[in-house]
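Q: Please design a sequence for this.
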């Protein structure tokens, strides 16, 4: 019998089942410890079965190959509407085969290689499954560094290398009563009250910040490097164009993409979105804090 483990992530229960093996277990997922829960649900966001005997589908069509920054991922469409992913690391080694049904509620994966390869592949598979299953529940993974301040969450979005983490560190250093929620992949979810909330997640990039915390989404701020500090609030069209690229999505899957666009639209309707043109200095953090928390 597979070994089942249940986790509560942004209010959704996720089940991970390990087939009998000596190489695959919860030791591959050290960042998930704080999210583990005891009470099982009959309404999992998704179930992922880890079984190295799973083999690639024979009949498939290559849809996309994309660079995650840590390696390439190949995406194939299956005849039944499901998907197959090959997850490769930065050394171009196949770490994980992931097969999912059309709504990502039922996923299976096979891992390959040493501990590091298996841990990397399994974490990426879980991120993919969460992002795409979450789209059906008004839930999205966003690429952001996020500060929690006085009960609100403030994600900073930007292209990789622009300075999201640097700006968060400036808040932590110069603004009182701040905490780091997550440094790479927090979760935003539209709750039953119609408002967006932001949650910590088991995925935080290079910064080990894995916190099962939640806060009302206070504002979204896009960071752009500039020779002087200034900030502006964006109109609805600009705001949508800023937030959408920060969310994990599959543009080629119309159903998932439409769900994501609906959720982003709700964020725009309820939450201010800004662009901060800035230097990496204290003045930028003070200006941003003064503006977006008012």
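A: Design:
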């Amino acid at each position: 019998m597979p070994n089942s483990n249940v986790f509560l992530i942004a209010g959704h229960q996720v089940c991970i089942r390990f087939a009998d093996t000596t190489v695959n277990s919860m030791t591959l997922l050290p960042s998930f410890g704080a999210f583990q829960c005891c009470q099982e649900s009959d309404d999992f966001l998704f179930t992922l079965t880890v079984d190295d005997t799973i083999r690639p589908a024979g009949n498939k069509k290559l849809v996309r190959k994309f660079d995650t920054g840590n390696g390439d991922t190949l995406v194939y469409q299956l005849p039944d509407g499901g998907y197959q992913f090959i997850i490769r690391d930065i050394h171009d080694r196949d770490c994980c085969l992931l097969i999912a049904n059309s709504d990502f509620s039922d996923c299976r994966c096979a891992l390959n290689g040493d501990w590091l390869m298996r841990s990397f592949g399994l974490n990426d598979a879980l991120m993919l499954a969460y992002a795409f299953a979450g789209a059906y529940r008004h839930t999205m993974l966003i690429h952001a560094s996020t500060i929690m301040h006085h009960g609100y969450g403030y994600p900073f979005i930007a292209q990789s290398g622009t300075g999201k983490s640097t700006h968060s560190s400036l808040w932590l250093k110069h603004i009182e009563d701040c905490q780091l929620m997550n440094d790479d992949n927090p979760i935003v979810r539209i709750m039953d009250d119609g408002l967006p909330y932001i949650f910590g997640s088991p995925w935080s990039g290079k910064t080990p910040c894995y916190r099962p915390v939640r806060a009302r989404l206070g504002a979204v701020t896009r960071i752009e490097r500039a020779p002087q500090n200034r900030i502006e609030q964006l109109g609805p069209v600009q705001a949508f164009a800023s937030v959408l690229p920060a969310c994990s999505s599959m543009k080629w899957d119309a159903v998932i993409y439409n769900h994501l666009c609906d959720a982003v639209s709700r964020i725009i309707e309820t939450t201010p979105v800004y662009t901060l043109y800035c230097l990496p200095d204290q003045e930028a953090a003070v200006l941003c804090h003064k503006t977006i928390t008012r």
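Q: Thanks. Anything notable?
A: The chain is about 25% helix and 35% strand. The chain has a mean pLDDT of 95.
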